[in-house]
């Protein structure tokens, strides 16, 4: 029984980690797309007169994007670590319940025999 539970816990942890890895990749792809779109917007902006102003504007927007991206990644990392902690806590509780139940069953069979 314990072996089956351990296998299920391992599988749940693997599934969670793969889902989190997928979310990380999607976030990075969204951020790269946003960065490219920002650059395209500045390049197509007709109100910017010269190259120096365009470069300054691109650098400014990239700095803002970088700050946002770092914050998003930090938030995602905190959320993902919290998810893993909760899953591990749940697994520990389930193991404790199984241990108590198996002890109770073995104690009751000891008294009846």
Automatic annotation (TrEMBL):
Q: What is this protein called?
A: Uncharacterized protein
Q: Which Gene3D superfamilies match?
A: Phospholipase C beta, distal C-terminal domain
Source species of the chain: Ridgeia piscesae (Tubeworm)
Q: Where is the composition biased (Basic and acidic residues)?
A: 1-29
Disordered: annotated span: 1-43
């Amino acid at each position: 029984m314990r072996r089956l539970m351990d296998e299920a816990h391992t599988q749940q942890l693997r599934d969670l980690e793969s889902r989190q890895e997928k979310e990380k990749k999607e976030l990075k792809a969204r951020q790269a797309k946003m960065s490219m779109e920002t650059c395209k917007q500045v390049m197509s902006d007709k109100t910017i007169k010269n190259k120096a102003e365009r470069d300054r504007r691109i650098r400014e927007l990239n700095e803002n994007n970088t700050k946002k991206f770092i914050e998003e990644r930090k938030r995602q990392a905190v959320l993902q670590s919290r998810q893993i902690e909760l899953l591990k806590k749940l697994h520990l509780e389930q193991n404790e319940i199984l241990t108590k139940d198996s002890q109770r069953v073995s104690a009751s069979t000891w008294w009846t025999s």
